[in-house]
Amino acid sequence: MDFSQRMGLLPASKVIQSDSIDIDLRNTLWNILSECYWSTFYPDYSTHKILSGSNFEEFSKALYSRFYKTTLDTLPWGWDTILEQLKKEIVSGVWHRTYSLLEFIIENGPGASDTCERCMLLCNEAFARENSAYRFVARKLTEITSPEEIHEIEVAISGTSNYAGVTTHLQTSLTLLTDRQNPDYRNSIKESISAVESLARKLVGDDKATLGQALKILETKHNLHGSLKSAFLTLYGYTSDASGIRHALIDNATAPTKADARFMLICCSAFINFAIDSVED
Predict the structure, then answer these.
(1) Contact 193/264 with Cβ under 8 angstroms?
(2) Is 247 left (phi over 0), alpha (psi -120 to 50) or beta?
(3) From CA 4, how far away is CA 130, in angstroms rounded?
(4) How far apart are CA 231 and CA 267, in angstroms?
(5) How confident is the model over 232-272, as pLDDT tens digits?
(6) What DSSP assignment string belongs to 76-90?
(7) DSSP H stretches of helix in 94-210
C-alpha cells in the first residue's frame, strides 16, 4: 500500500474489475504497448513517421481491414494518426473493445515472438496489480484469476505439440469460453472433454477407443489411480448422459454457465498434464 492507502484516504484494494477498466489500468496498458511495440517503429525520420515501408505497415492494414472492418483506402499515410486512434481506444474506449484490441495487437503486432511474450507478461502483472479479473492465457484474455489455473491451461496447450488434436480441442475450448461477444459455454465444454478423449486414444494406440476404455488401459499400463479414473468417468458422464452437454437441449434444461465451462477446461487441462507426465516419466 502507498501512503494514501495506509492513511485510509484511498481503498487498500480495488473491487475486481470484471466488466470495466479503470484509468490506472488503461494508462498502464498503454505504457506497456508503447514500451513493447510503439517505440520500435522504423524508419523514423523524426518529423514524419511515414507508414508505407515501415515495420507497422502490415499491422496497420490488418488493423483497418480485420479489426475496424473498414476499407484500406482510408488508411492514413502517417503512423501518428493511427497511433492516436489506438490510444483513444485503449485509454477511453468501451472496456470490452479495449480488451479485444489488446488481443488483436498481441496476435498481430510486429516483432519477434519474445516481444509478444514480454508484452503478455507485463500485461498480466498489471492485471494482477490492478485487480483485473482477466489474464492472458495462450494469447487469449481469459477470466481466470488463479495463477495455478492459468498455468495448467498454458502447460496443456504448449505441452501437447505431439498430440495435434489435443492442442486444437483445447485452443478451441479456450476461444469459445473467452469470446465476449458470443460465448459458447456448451461447445467449450465439449471441446475440453474431446481433448481428453483425443489424448487417451493416442496414449493407448486405438483411435476408436472410448474414454472409458482408454482410462482402463491407462489404469493397468500406466498406473493411473483407480479413484482418479472413477472421478473422471463420473465427470465424463456429466457430458454424456441423456440430458448431458453432448445431447440436444430439452425443455427446461439448464444451460451450462461460464463457471461450468471454465471448470471443465481447467480440469481437463490438469488431467492432460497428469496423463502425459505419467506416461513420459
Answers:
(1) yes
(2) beta
(3) 16
(4) 11
(5) 888 777 666 544 555 444 445 678 888 888 888 998 998 88
(6) -SBHHHHHHHHHHHH
(7) 95-108, 113-129, 147-158, 164-178, 185-204
Please state, as a whole number, how many other Cβ atoms lie within 10 Å of the Cβ of residue 89. Answer: 19
**pLDDT value of position 215:** 81
| Contact in structure between 198 and 165 (CB atoms under 8 Å) | yes
Please, which residues bridge with residue 135 across strands?
Answer: 142
In one letter, which amino acid is 112?
A: A
Neighbours of 47 (CB within 10 A): 5
CB 246 within 8 A of CB 154: no
- Taking a C-beta distance cutoff of 8 angstroms, is the pair 130, 14 a contact? yes
Q: Supply 265's cell numbers.
A: 477446461
pTM reported for the whole predicted model: 0.72
The residues, ordered by sequence, that sit 6+ positions from 178 with a Cβ below 8 Å of its Cβ are 140, 141, 142, 143
- Quick one: how many helices (H) and strands (E) in the chain? 12, 2
Question: What is the rounded distance in angstroms from the CA atom of residue 121 to the CA atom of residue 195?
Answer: 27
Residue whose cell numbers read 498503454: 30
